[in-house]
Amino acid sequence: MPHHLMNLRHVPDDEADEIRALFEDHEIRYYETPPSKWGISMGGFWVHDDDEAVRARALLDEYQRQRLQTQRQAYEPVWPPVKPGASGR
Fold this sequence. Notes:
Layout: E1 3-7, H1 13-25, E2 31-33, E3 44-47, H2 50-75
Antiparallel strand pairs: 1-3, 2-3
């Protein structure tokens, strides 16, 4: 029975590319369906095998934890904010 691993609707291209590379690096036998243009199908990454699904989900969980951390760091403001012209001391 197919296992849906991840919805691809609204997933940035760089994230989808990183997940494809992750699966390929770990030899996960996955397939991909694209989201429909009309919002009928969500698309996603899938596997057929139960054991493969467990491995893939574990990899995805770790990947998503790391991505959350790196994306949060990229967009969090520096605290405390430094005023223009301040020496920072």
